[in-house]
## 1
Amino acid sequence: MSPSSPQRITLIGLGTIGMSMAALHLTRDNTIVHVFDTRPDFEQYLLKTLPNFLADPNPELGSDSSSSKVASLISSGRLRIHSELETACASATIVQEQGPENLAFKQSIWKKVESAAPASAHFWTSTSGIAASAQQQDMKDKTRLLVVHPFNPPHIMPLLEIVPAPETSPERVEFAREYFSLPGSRHRPVVIRKEIPGFVGNRLAFALLREACFLVQEDVVTAKDLDTILMASLGPRWAGNGVFESYQQGGGEGGIKAFLEKLQSTMQEVWNGLGNVNVQGEHGTEWKEKVIKQTNEAYGTLTPEQTREKEERLRDFIRAQTRTYGQ
Amino acid sequence: MSPSSPQRITLIGLGTIGMSMAALHLTRDNTIVHVFDTRPDFEQYLLKTLPNFLADPNPELGSDSSSSKVASLISSGRLRIHSELETACASATIVQEQGPENLAFKQSIWKKVESAAPASAHFWTSTSGIAASAQQQDMKDKTRLLVVHPFNPPHIMPLLEIVPAPETSPERVEFAREYFSLPGSRHRPVVIRKEIPGFVGNRLAFALLREACFLVQEDVVTAKDLDTILMASLGPRWAGNGVFESYQQGGGEGGIKAFLEKLQSTMQEVWNGLGNVNVQGEHGTEWKEKVIKQTNEAYGTLTPEQTREKEERLRDFIRAQTRTYGQ
């Protein structure tokens, strides 16, 4: 079946990422979304929470229109709520899980899904940390499972990291890539060639975070000032250009080669001195208390209004990324 | 003299950063900008190049209006071209250098500037790598010099890292911070508390770049796909939120503390496995050839039209950062 054909998508686990994923899939007219979660008040929770993810970017329409949108999705059969995994998976073309980040849970759920879902269904895990090759251990057909790792919030953020296990079939990788690349999709799937802890996006984020924690620990800068630095320079730069393209530009006509030659002594000095702090264990974790304290003091807890503003801003950045100028 | 008073700013070194800095200072009505550079065709070069930095964001006005803007700045005396360092500095309230990144050059230029400029003038260096404490060695009054490190292009990018040496006077640090914080300024100066190689912005950038080079070397991802990943996730996230604020949000009600607890095993695994590649020396530099080749193939050299589009996009991101929604 082609990725552009009507799909029946079963979502397992409807926490924040799951709700956002439901909103993502429901923006397509030809999907039916089956949802399953083990929380006892699941239906009420969904009716209360999903409207926030379907909210029209135009705030004047308010959340009333989103609530009635959920009711109409249910009454038209495009959104179906399940209390049993088996019935949720019975007719699926795609099963996607956003359950707990726990290897035993993942292995057990895929074993169950495999016996409940049609033999052709695609299996996607939204994990941020557990490779498909580890999750598929108890499956009979190991070619069906792959990681589709979203960035929060997936209904707005364009990236999906598609990370196959060595045993995943290339056709299933291509199906997932095409599904998120269909005309009208605002998403940008990227296939990662090898399984590696943290995949690519979080490895890059955590590399920067480690140095950020070190700089706060050493009192070079406060947590809030470091955030200002990032927002006033690298954030907008990397929203418009990747890191390699930025340095290709930075080197002028000589490109990244000239850039690396010009900056090499500062760069090597920085690389040699990067902070080797830890997040686990007893050594190198002195930064934690300072970072947590300064971050809490700077930001507290976000109000729903602040969250909405941040989502609108994120949408603006993403719109600007694809705008063509001077026409 | 207060930072909001009329300033006479002398710029030494009018390469790309210097031209952009001239454009930045000239957007204020009460500045007179003196420019000095040793290239023999300096005046012709300036007349040809500066219009690109003064270009109105509205492309319909075209570059003709920018060229005539430069002519009118010169005839009104707001922009003054010098062929001698001494006359360029003679009446300055601020002297800012963007010369070669070479310690001997910087030490020698500040010694000359100190004897040519009024005793009250502020001395700013736009260096990205040479600390003020090293540059000031041959100066009589070491309290006057500090780093004002811009991000490219400074006439658009909001960040200025202000990095004093231990001997720089706090009043001179505050003057620079206030100058770039005046009402109407689109800039965001941040004072760094300790001199450290790469300051903060480039340390964060180089920490991420090192891992990016490692991932390309290991064939986990191509240079172009890595750039797509960054632009489709971390770029727009960090344009809207710093890294600490993002994880404060990511942890929900428990904030960054809860986030670190939840993600700690993946994070530590990633930190333990970050690539230790080098940019200098013979070991760990295998990535270079691959990264340069893939980057050249992906991007080539930017056309002037592409550069203009990228600058417009950057302006859009920066405008979105300060927009208020829902009003």
## 2
Amino acid sequence: MDNTAVKEWIYSQETQAVRLLQKLIQEKSVRGQESKAQAVIIEKCREIGLQLDIWEIQKKDIMNHPFYRCDRDDFSGNPNVIGVLKGQGGGRSIILNGHIDVVPEGDEAAWNVDPFSGVHRNGKVFGRGATDMKGGTVALLLAIEALKATGVLLKGDIIFQSVIEEESGGAGTLAALLRGYTADGAIIPEPTNLKLFPKQQGSMWFRILVKGKQAHGGTRYEGVNAIEKGLEVVKRLQDLEKKRNENVLDPLYGNIPIPFPINIGKFESGKWPSSVPDLAVIEGRIGVGPHETMEGVEKELQYCLEGLSEKDRWFEDHPVTLEWFGGRWQPGSIESDHPFMEAVSEAYLEVFDSPPVIEASPWGTDGGILSKGGNIPVIIFGPGTTESAHDANEFIEVRKILQSAEVIASAVIKWCEVEYQ
Amino acid sequence: MDNTAVKEWIYSQETQAVRLLQKLIQEKSVRGQESKAQAVIIEKCREIGLQLDIWEIQKKDIMNHPFYRCDRDDFSGNPNVIGVLKGQGGGRSIILNGHIDVVPEGDEAAWNVDPFSGVHRNGKVFGRGATDMKGGTVALLLAIEALKATGVLLKGDIIFQSVIEEESGGAGTLAALLRGYTADGAIIPEPTNLKLFPKQQGSMWFRILVKGKQAHGGTRYEGVNAIEKGLEVVKRLQDLEKKRNENVLDPLYGNIPIPFPINIGKFESGKWPSSVPDLAVIEGRIGVGPHETMEGVEKELQYCLEGLSEKDRWFEDHPVTLEWFGGRWQPGSIESDHPFMEAVSEAYLEVFDSPPVIEASPWGTDGGILSKGGNIPVIIFGPGTTESAHDANEFIEVRKILQSAEVIASAVIKWCEVEYQ
């Protein structure tokens, strides 16, 4: 099929796409505040003419699933949104999934622009969520609208999903799966910088409680500083990360400096400058390879922490406590020669006149829930860049949104097939 | 003068003293919540028959004093309390000063008792503030009441002060000084474990802001972790502490493992387990020797932090920021042969039949404000122990409260002199 009309339509919509992305960024959809950004999505889905399913997640509907791991009880007012474009029948279906939640903006002083302004400058749109992944969601909607606007009649269904909770472990996508939404393939436009990721790293959040002994700061030698003990734990985690990444042979990780990082995301200790703190709380995430199980990695970290007492007797009588909480992303993978990979790769080749770069994702996505939980082949492919995600001055190139929309539209045509009339 | 009657009266009041201390501990007088514990003090002062002066500190009255350093704007509802026992005239006056504020209880799990219960067991009373310094305040009130009850008529005035804000830099004692309260000597019964401290270490609170660079945890190598950079700052502070304590020759510091400690009291960084944090905030206190100036020590710490870039180029482009905030205690000292030291030492000798142990305090007190700001000779002498201060399971021995009350009553008699009728 000749996709010229689809392509031309997409490129004619640059101004509208930028405006939609700006509106999405301007609604600060951090955890628990997703409703206004979802309202923008709903409005757009209505405009395109998708069949909407808007619902508030009920904890009881998902909490018994083995992949459920969520420390949020109340989802009221902040719905999941699904928009379906029914096909004519007889074709393969596709899920196009994006998450609406964004991580907090961090230290505002590090931003050169208001993180929720959506400034458009030099072909880039700036703001928290631009790259992770409201830009990707705009690409999905642009692709779907292009197919609709140019009169392409698909055999298979498109199931567009705008989910909450991805940044906290995927309760949104899990809820969509358990509501019955499945498909023959799924694309998630997380920031791959237009690379194809058939493998996704999983990850888990952990919390480590480190004990000290209180004392007055003026006689700090009478106490044991939990901050100093916490530093030993940080060093131990750094060593474990090194060990876990020494012998990764999978060529898809060839360009990735640390395939399965351990990130120390939070260190909190002490309440009073003149007191020796007696507790340090360390939170972070540990990457899980597609070849690993969550349980195996849990044991490895536990074992690593038990070794703390070898170098410091303090930990013998005061062992640290390891907790698994919040976010938990299953790893996922499909073979590089899977038909779905072939369809998306061909679409890429058509658009760029060169084959795609294929790598493994350095982070967890909701893809693991779809593939491990729903047996759906998943490919991560999107316009943003990992470097910009979660960073200050997060941005996305508008050009890449349009390019990825073109690839996705073309891939949908190949996968879902066209009904010629 | 024969102090037998005073002594007997003090020892007859053990039950009442314990009860008063328990009532004080049960009122959780952390910063901003001092009013109920002050009400207990006020009631007791009324009972003894002291002339009360109860007032709320006005920031404008003290904020222009060079020793003012306070990040609290609102003192309303939480007064300073002074109770005066006027002498007959012609004698030296004395300030007996105790602070009513306590530091937070810390990790409650580390306590074997409710930190605000005031449990009395095996001759000890337990709870936050028992040793620092509600036990000392009870000793002061016991000494004053003993003099009153046994009909001792002093020539000089006793000015009893129950102040707020000591743990945060001394705004309470500064306000009392600027309200006009001065004297020929002052005893502060901070926890010296019945030793005499004619020299007091000063201290200052500092805050260090350490920059990183945000990134997604899955590609943490794209960012710079502020926690890791913060650890380098902690190490640097540890080195500075070592250097500053290498050549302390003053024999009064002979038994103190670290005469002028640098305490890291707080380390906070990061908000999200899957993000690389871009800011770490470190708070602590640095000890200031009686031979040093605050300004000199400020410069030394600043210079030390500037050296961070020698080992790590990151700090060259991202220097840390040093702030001086909150608590600030002037160092203080009087000569060991000062007449006031002689009076208190003689009182001690009478009670214990052995000379007092004389040391330098390992922590700052409000004494520096009285001595440097009011030219008042100050001695720190109290029943608590430094080890127990700011710690979980803080306690005080009841016996020592009674002993210190006896020494203080006797010292007051020597210093203020008795009017024989």
